[in-house]
From TrEMBL:
InterPro entries: ABHD16_N. It comes from Culex pipiens. The chain crosses the membrane at residues 35-58, 70-91. Keywords: Membrane, Transmembrane, Transmembrane helix. Pfam families: ABHD16_N (PF22990). Residues 2-117 form the Phosphatidylserine Lipase ABHD16 N-terminal domain. This is Protein ABHD16A. It comes from the Eukaryota.
Length: 125
């Protein structure tokens, strides 16, 4: 499976293989996911406090032509941080054998393959 497929696959909580163990993400996946969770929290707080933030930024003079560069740098930095954390999480997932097995099984289910033996062999690996 190519690397870019691991960037947006769902989170795995438990592999149902008969054991009671929960899925333990690797270091890269864990820190990438924590970074994305923190950024999502900041986005939600900013979204709901946007009337106050816009008023504050307007009074400070950030909505003039001279401050566009500052806002662009801030937005670019946040975008790069999101891209970096997505890549960290995807790399961590691609190196984890349990997650690779889950992603292959999910991909086979999405394709809707009629071959039941192939799907079962993916689950048993």
């Amino acid at each position: 499976m190519p690397f870019h497929k691991y960037l947006f696959t769902p989170r795995l909580f438990k592999e149902y293989d008969g054991t009671k163990d929960v899925y333990e993400p690797g270091t890269l996946e864990k820190y990438g996911d924590q970074l994305l969770t923190a950024l999502n929290l900041m986005w939600s707080l900013g979204y709901y406090t946007s009337p106050l933030l816009i008023t504050f930024l307007y009074r400070r003079g950030y909505f003039v032509a001279d401050s566009v560069g500052t806002l662009a740098k801030f937005g670019t930095g946040i975008g790069l941080l999101v891209a970096f954390s997505l890549c960290m999480r995807g790399l961590g997932r691609s190196m984890n054998v349990v997650y690779v097995r889950f992603a292959e099984c999910l991909e086979n289910a999405k394709r809707g393959s009629q071959d039941q033996d192939a799907a079962k062999s993916t689950i048993r690996r």
